[in-house]
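#dry-run=false #mode=assembly
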Amino acid sequence: MEVSIRKDISRFARNIPAHLMSSEEKENLSHKNFGLSEGKFNEMVELLIQGNETIFEKAFLNHFERTMQYLVNKNGASQEVAYDITMNTLLEFRKRILLRKVSYGNLNFLFTQMCSQRFKREMSKKVDHDTYNQVNSSEATFDEDMFVLLEKTMLKLGENCQSLIQDVYYNKLSYKDMEIKYDKASATLRKQKERCITKLKMLIRQNLNTI
Amino acid sequence: MKNSIEKLKSFANSSYNSAEEKDFMEDTMSSYYDEKLKKKYAEKLALEHGISKPTNSDEPHKPSFNWFRILIIISILMALAVAGFFLNKLNQTDANFQVADNIDAYYTEIDFNTRGELTVEEKLNDLATYYDQKDFTKIATLYKTLDLNTVDGKYLHAIAVSLVNNDQLEEAKNVWGILLETEETRFTYHNVARWFLGRAIIESGNNIEDGKAYLLEVSSNSKHYEQAQKLLSEVND
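#status=ok
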């Protein structure tokens, strides 16, 4: 019984059958997907994993203002809050794309829904816009001193280590994707990551001694 | 600054793969990369699109803001009073779905062991009691101990709504999926399930066509029909 139910449930989780659409139908979808065709979207995902953000930035920054206005008009957000919400959602969206958790279909709708939901979530935590701004600015802004210190340290770390650490801990790429990106076996990458972290610790110790 | 230095020291002196290292890399470094990307995007937005981060002082209605807020608060209170009145009316005639949809239910752990080992019948009785009390927090807890195939349609729907309110959307979709099984006793709740499942799928974003399909199946003699049509037209726009 349980097996048959699970089978049934999987029906609800299937993806949009975009591959079944005609080329004309697919073309019509681009206006719902930040102007991206399905091919361009797939290219964007692969490039983003490889560390090239060109298409991603072009597509999403072009629509940044429109999304902000949506939050202002539809949700009554202030311009400042709308900016923060759109920016934070953009980072979340980027992460989901890197994890291949976003499928082509109606990206505009998905993104604005994510913004709306984030806004509602944030607002439910805070009493009003004033409180929101106070709490948000203290929570969301990363300690500037820490940022400067880390920026200084990361510059000394070297490009390879910077990229690897970002991919492992921030972008959370799979080792399968990283093997292709760096053209190295996962065991080698793990060893390299260990060396990078050791170097990062050493550089931080050096920087702390100079403060 | 002092706090930042402590964090850096703790990380710098930690051993490889330690909890301190993991915390630092996953929390502090993530915040660092967030900030780095935000700065990069903000710069591009300013340079290439002329969009700078607005401040509240840029808001055009600032001078009359307090009056404006008071008016909004009064309007909200009036709207709440009217909504409360109608909600109350609806509750008298309907199966509490509207209440379920809005209730602020969060998961809290309840130790069912304090009552000893409950039989299936006792659990189902408890479920009925919690449903009557509109205690969706307890419903969200109790459902885990039940075989959902034995649960009646209206309770399944209440469970699904409780899960949505508890941010467990995927589990809620599964429960609505079970509700859509074609058993006679559950049939009257199919339209409700189709409407909520369709909406949930659309709101979760990835399978919009599936969500639309469920909304299209909502029968025209269902009171959810108009809501389904409205959402469909919004999505199609």
